[in-house]
Design brief:
six-stranded parallel beta sheet; eight-stranded parallel beta sheet; alpha/beta; 19 helices
């Protein structure tokens, strides 16, 4: 994987981001200062989620560029960054802007990582990014990660689509988990699938048929030949694009409106028509909330069984469906009495022109409210279908049409808790049922094609339970202070304002030792910030102080959720011991050795020779050279910055203390 382009295929929740971390650590060790990676994501909230795990397990210099963080930053601002996390369209714009200055980003980075790389097709930003990268003579290694690479109606079509994906990613090889797969299953819960077929009444069937006939008449009138199923999202999108340069605007708009309303009905069972709609009479007398009533009954059963710790996601495909379901559940669904809106929240994408959708901050707030338990049921469009990590999610309810194996795999993958269930609600005898059956077949085809690649030797073996296995030479750098078994299913960081979440956690604690504190580093020109909270501490660096604090706070939250050891709070000893060193191991997201070594020296005020002193610091041939005295020991080191040199020197002393204790 390290020396060639690759596509890592693994189940949702199996730790693909951890593999990316290991790749970057190994490459950093090999390339030193020449290492620079760009981690490109498909959704805004994933920039913080993925960077938070890097911050927790590495001391790499990280930076986020999104519409909410460092939004005006240029490529030149990433000069000292090891790993840049950025959303795809923003990265593509950055590439094109720099090309105007004759600066080619693809020639300046060593590694390009594409999260959810199955999107690399058609005119998606991933495809355009890859085209630019592959056009360069000097180019980075490309690594893609996905749980759902391709899925077509036949095995032959699936194999062809997979080959095309490999070609688009620079002749990338497929890498899978094929050894210890049973062991993986013990760490990554697979949700049970529950089909919930709902009979469509005769009256509904007749009404739907009449609507489709009306749509057919309008299509013939305007000369439109549909390429997708009436009432599907692709139908409306294609029709809108087709109509841009056509006449019959009024009839086209009417056709789109009918299609959208038909889709909302098939997803929710709710029909919201106005009396002036010329087909209103066909729906006005129908009892149309049967699908929502089924959903409400299932939620009630869960609430009675799980109590208010229950968490679930409801997926649909339209914003109108999101609103209809949310309003229905708030009014008639089971109550979470301790929560606003009885525990129901929603999130949807932004629409073109900024209307009829949610702003980025509102999306992030809704996602965060669900992650921290403020809301218990999240009704959502596909905006959180991929990569959204909530380990406490008991159930997923898919109300919309599952039109592809990708939607099936990704939607099911949001049910993360042990014993979770993936419920698929659909009207029998409709296209929705046909789509669902076809999606299951596509997934089977995908698995068979991947299995065949394993058998013919074209797919390398990856030993998931032992990342340092000889069969996986790239994964040779263990995560600092963490065993592979501990990070099989990492808890994701918060997606919104980790500072506020951590402050609230500290305020709830009555222990003064848990107080939230922020310290500016002495090296303030480098925007280095240390956060102390809940007896833990973390230090991070970014181009802005607030961003550095956010990364540090996020790392502490992950540290708490993963249950890693607390910073020591034991009484002052007369001599440093190995036990103290173990308790004081720094969070690896930070350059923390100098911070903790300084604190250790402060435990011995009666021993002035133990005092922490940075004796010398000077720039020699482009590198900082420092000499450090602490705990009666002396060390010297060099680094790209004064801070990194000090960290290296502090680590030398730290390791000396630990080694001496081991030899006693």
């Amino acid at each position: 994987m390290m020396n060639k382009n690759s596509i890592a295929v693994a189940p949702t929740g199996s730790g693909k981001t951890i593999v990316a971390i290991l790749l970057c650590l190994a490459e950093k060790e090999r390339l030193k200062e020449r290492f620079k990676a760009v981690f490109v994501v498909d959704k805004l909230h994933l920039t913080i989620q993925q960077s938070g795990l890097f911050a927790l397990f590495t001391n790499l210099n990280l930076m986020i560029i999104s519409s909410e963080q460092n939004s005006n930053s240029k490529w030149e601002d990433t000069k000292d960054v090891d790993v840049l996390f950025i959303i795809h369209d923003k990265y593509l714009r950055m590439i094109l802007e720099e090309e105007k200055k004759k600066i080619f980003i693809s020639e300046e980075i060593s590694h390009l990582i594409l999260d959810e790389c199955h999107h690399s097709h058609s005119n998606h930003p991933y495809s355009n990014i890859l085209k630019e990268v592959l056009s360069r003579e000097k180019r980075p290694i490309i690594s893609g990660f996905t749980a759902s690479p391709v899925g077509k109606d036949t095995k032959e079509e699936t194999e062809k689509a997979l080959t095309e994906l490999q070609q688009r990613m620079g002749e990338a090889e497929i890498v899978q988990i094929v050894e210890n797969i049973e062991s993986l299953g013990q760490h990554v819960p697979t949700p049970k699938v529950d089909d919930v077929p709902i009979p469509l009444s005769k009256q509904h069937q007749e009404a739907v048929e009449k609507i489709e006939n009306i749509m057919l008449e309008l299509e013939e009138k305007i000369g439109y030949k549909p390429t997708h199923i009436r009432g599907s999202s692709k139908y409306s999108k294609k029709l809108k694009k087709w109509s841009e340069k056509k006449e019959h605007v009024e009839d086209t708009d009417k056709l789109i409106d009918i299609s959208d309303k038909l889709r909302v009905f098939l997803e929710t069972g709710v029909i919201k028509m106005k009396p002036e709609d010329f087909f209103f009479q066909d729906f006005s007398q129908l009892d149309s909330d049967v699908k929502l009533s089924e959903l409400s009954a299932l939620l009630k059963t869960y609430l009675e069984k799980e109590g208010e710790d229950f968490r679930a996601i409801v997926f649909v495909t339209t914003k109108d469906s999101v609103r209809n379901i949310h309003d229905f559940l708030v009014a008639f669904g089971p109550r979470f009495h301790s929560k606003d809106n009885h525990g129901y929240g929603y999130v949807m994408g932004r629409s073109e022109g900024g209307k009829d959708g949610m702003t980025r901050p509102k999306q992030t707030e809704s996602i965060e409210d669900f992650k921290c338990g403020k809301t218990k049921i999240l009704i959502s469009t596909s905006v959180v279908e991929e990569g959204f990590d909530v380990p406490d999610c008991n159930a997923v309810f898919y109300m919309g049409d599952i039109t592809s194996s990708r939607s099936l795999i990704q939607g099911r993958g949001r049910a993360r808790k042990e014993g979770s269930i993936f419920h698929v609600l659909y009207f029998t005898g409709t296209k929705g049922q046909e789509f669902y059956e076809k999606s299951k077949k596509q997934e089977r085809n995908m698995k068979e094609v991947l299995k065949s690649k394993e058998k013919d030797g074209s797919c390398p073996l990856v030993n998931k339970s032992n990342p340092t296995s000889p069969q996986s030479p790239v994964i040779s750098t263990p995560l600092p202070q963490s065993s592979p078994s501990k990070i099989e299913s990492p808890t994701s960081p918060s997606t919104k304002n980790p500072i506020s979440e951590l402050r609230e956690m500290c305020q709830k604690s009555k222990d003064p030792a848990d107080e939230y504190r922020v310290d500016d580093s002495a090296f303030t020109t480098e925007k280095i910030v240390k956060v102390r909270a809940m007896r833990r501490e973390s230090q991070a660096k970014s181009s802005k102080k607030k961003d550095a604090e956010t990364i540090a706070a996020n790392a502490i939250l992950n540290n708490i959720k993963l249950g890693t050891p607390l910073t020591s709070n034991d009484p002052i000893a007369t001599e440093p011991t190995r036990n103290q060193c173990t308790l004081l191991q720094p969070n690896e997201n930070s350059k923390g050795y100098q911070v903790l070594l300084r604190e250790m020296t402060q435990r011995f005020p009666q021993r002035p020779e133990f005092a922490y002193k940075l004796e010398e610091a000077e720039m020699i041939e482009g590198e900082w050279k420092v000499e450090l005295k602490a705990m009666g020991r002396v060390s010297s080191a060099s680094g790209r910055t004064k801070t990194s040199a000090e960290v290296s020197a502090a680590k030398i002393i730290w390791d000396q203390i630990e080694l001496e204790e081991k030899m006693k």
